[in-house]
Amino acid sequence: MGEIHVGAAVVDITPGVGISMGGYGARKGVATGIHDPLFVRAAVLSDGATTLVLAVCDLVGVSGELVDAARLLIERECGIPAANICVAATHTHSGAAPSREQGLTEFLAVTARKICGAVQMALGAAEPVTLKYAETQVSTISQNRRHPEGPIETTGKILLAAPSGGAPAVATIVNFACHATVLEHDNLLYSADFPGAAARTVERAIGGSCVYMQGACGNINPIWMRHDFAEVERVGGILGAAATRTAHELRPLGEGQWAVNLNWSESTPKTPAPGTLLTEPRFAAAVKRLNLPRRVLPELGEIERELQELEAGMQRLEASDVAGRRALRPRYNQLRLDRVQKVQDPAAAGDTRQIEIQAFRLSDECAVIALPGEFFVETARELEQSCGVKHLLICGYANDTIGYVAAAHEFPHAGYEVGRTKFAAESAAMVVDAAAALVRSLYQD
C-alpha cells in the first residue's frame, strides 16, 4: 500500500430557528436561537487503494433518508463507494429535528449537500500522515442511568492522524459513550452539548479537526451539577482535556523524544507513553444487512389494566417509601411507552426490521464498527470481546435511526429503554454476532 493520506473538514449545518428540536418529548416550543453551531465533522482516510469516510453530525440521529442522500452525492461526486461512507450523529438532544410541515425535505437535502461538501473539502486537504491509537481513562462524567452502580464507559479511545515533523494534527477521532444530555428539555437553543465542547477543546490544543464518535451509550447519562452551558463546557472539557493529553502523548510514537543529559553531554531517549503506531495500515470496508425481530407487545386492554393497577399501587405508597416506588416505577414507565407504541403502530409488533451494520478495517490492530441504534455499554463490551481485533472503535447512531436495542438481561428490569425499544430481547445478541462476523471477514486474506 502507499502512504496514508487523511483530510478533515468542519462544516456548519445549523438550520434556521423556529423549527423543532430532537431528543425530548417533554420539550415545549421550537428552537429560539443558537448557542453554539451544529457541525458535520468529516474525516477522509485513504491508503492509496481504499478511501473511507467518517462524517459525524451534531444531531440526535441521522435518518436513513439523510444517509442515503449524502452517500449518493459523495459516491457520485467523489467516487467513494457507499459502503465506505459512514454518516453518524453525536446524539445531541439540542439539535434540529424538523417536521415535514417545517421543511424536513429541504433540511435533508441541504444537510446532505453539506455533508458531501465537508467530504470534498477533506479530500482536497488530505496529506500524508501516520495513524496512532491510544486510550485514556475518564470515569467522572457519566453514570449508568438504569442502575447507579451498573457499568459505564470509562475508556476514551483516541485515533490521531498527524504528519511527521511536528506539524499540527490533521484529525483526532475521539470515541466515548455517554448521552449528550447535559442540557435538558427546557433548553431551546441549538447546541452540540458536551461532544461539541470536547471537540473544541481538542481542536484548540492539537489543531486540525476533532471528530467525536459517539459509542454505545443507550444506558449511560452524563453527570451534571446544573443543566446549563457552563456544565456543557465543564463536562466536555474533562473529556476533551483527557483526549488532548493523550493525543499530545501520542506524537512521539514512531518519531522519538529525548532529553539533554548534561552529565554525559548527550541527548538521551525517553520512551513515549503507551500507544499503538498503526505501522501497516490497510483499509477495507463492508456492510451487512440484518433482519431484527420486533418486540411483541401486550394487547392495549392488558396494558391499560396493568397501568391502572400500578398507579393505584403507587398512590398507596407512603411518600418516604423509596424502595416501594423504585420497585413499581420501571414497569410503569415501560407500560406507558408500550401504550404509545401500540396506539401508533398496532400491527407492527411481531414482524422484523432490516438494519445495516458497517465495518471499517484500518490495520491489523484497529477497526471500526458502525451501528444504527442506541446500544447498551454491556453490548459494546461483548462486541469488543467477540471481534478478535485488539483496538475496536464502536460508532453508535450511525447510518440510520432505529432507537434502542436493549440488552436481553435488562428486559426483566423494564424501564424507559425497554419500553422504547421496538426490538425483541434477542436482538442485541444477534447484532453482536453479525457485527463480529463482519469485522472478522475483513481480516480473511
Describe this structure in words.
- By secondary structure, the protein is an alpha/beta fold.
- The protein is 32% helix and 25% strand.
- It has 9 helices and 22 strands.
- It has helices spanning 64-78, 104-125, 193-206, 229-250, 300-316, 322-344, 377-387, 416-420, 427-441, and strands at 5-12, 33-34, 39-46, 51-57, 85-89, 127-128, 130-137, 142-144, 155-162, 171-176, 189-190, 209-214, 220-222, 258-261, 266-269, 276-277, 284-293, 352-361, 366-370, 374-375, 391-395, 404-405.
- The chain has a 5-stranded mixed beta sheet, with helices on one face. It has a 5-stranded mixed beta sheet with strand order 12-10-9-7-16.
- β18 and β19 form a beta hairpin.
- α3 crosses α4 (229-250), α5 (300-316) runs antiparallel to α6 and α7 packs parallel to α9 (427-441).
- The longest helix has 23 residues, at 322-344.
- The protein starts with a strand and ends with a helix.
- The mean pLDDT is 95.
Mean pLDDT: 95
How is the biggest beta sheet arranged? 5 strands, mixed
Helix tally equals 9
How much helical structure, as a percent, in the residues? 25-40%
Q: Into which percentage range does the β-strand content fall?
A: 25-35%
Poorly predicted regions? none
The gyration radius over C-alpha positions equals 23 Å
Supply the helix-strand structural class: alpha/beta
Distance between the termini: 15 Å
Strand order of the largest sheet: 5-4-3-1-6
Q: Report the count of strand segments.
A: 22
Shape: globular
